[in-house]
């Protein structure tokens, strides 16, 4: 605010401005003294703001230097995540009722030693189908093997029956051409493939025409295209035989 503006105000208005600035008992001052006091207050405010700005700029520079140091340290400590680790292990993940995904690591030192001892060795995935969660692979309902390459680290596995539990062994067949000598390298966790309500209650669909009609209404989408769903296909095939038998009896 300029001196001319202050001089344009009355003494009472100048005193009011001083009271807002926290100055009391200015009634005995002349108008020139009031203006001078207000100008000093404004100058002090400007100086404080300038000092605050300088301090903030200094802090900003310190922060920039600190950030540059951190960035330099980060660049020096960057490392790539290894594709394989020293521990031999296998993990099984459920993708949907018909597919699971297995991934594994094999200790390179152990594998090298086994290859030196058994030059014809091969690596396999042995998949066990269990009746329930926590079942023993030795009492599996069925099992099958998938040959894999040494360079493989993951595999999609087609699950034969929904509503069952599965577990996978990572095994090494050391004598593929002679009597089999198999070593289990690692065993995965168990996963349970959900079967769905109707898969466990197919007899209800066979006996109740309304439920079957409601279920079949979901075979196509709104455009009339048949739904590609293996679970639905299993149920339809199971009920189809029953429908044919009932028709033959009626005839």
CATH-derived architecture of the largest domain: Sandwich
Assign an overall shape: elongated
Q: Roughly how many Å apart are the termini? A: 108 Å
The first-level CATH class name of the largest domain: Mainly Beta
Number of strands: 8
Please, how many domains? 3
| Averaged pLDDT | 75
Question: For the record, what is the CATH homologous superfamily label of the largest domain?
Answer: Immunoglobulins
> Which structural class do the helices and strands define?
alpha+beta
CATH topology of the largest domain: Immunoglobulin-like
**SSE string, helix = H, strand = E?**
HHHEEHEEEEEEHHHH
Question: What is the makeup of the main sheet?
Answer: 5 strands, antiparallel
Compact overview of the structure:
The chain folds into 3 domains: 3-77; 89-192, Immunoglobulin-like (Sandwich); 197-250. The chain is built from 8 helices and 8 strands.
Describe the structure.
α2 packs parallel to α3. The protein has eight helices and eight strands. The chain is α+β, with helices and mostly antiparallel strands and 251 residues long. The model has no long low-confidence stretch (mean pLDDT 75). It is elongated, with a radius of gyration of 41 Å. The protein has three domains: 3-77; 89-192, Immunoglobulin-like (Sandwich); 197-250. It has helices spanning 3-7, 11-20, 31-77, 108-117, 197-200, 202-207, 209-216, 230-250, and strands at residues 89-96, 99-105, 122-130, 142-148, 154-158, 165-173, 182-187, 191-192. β1 (89-96) and β2 form a beta hairpin. The strands form two sheets. Strands 3, 4, 6, 7 and 8 form a five-stranded antiparallel beta sheet that branches.
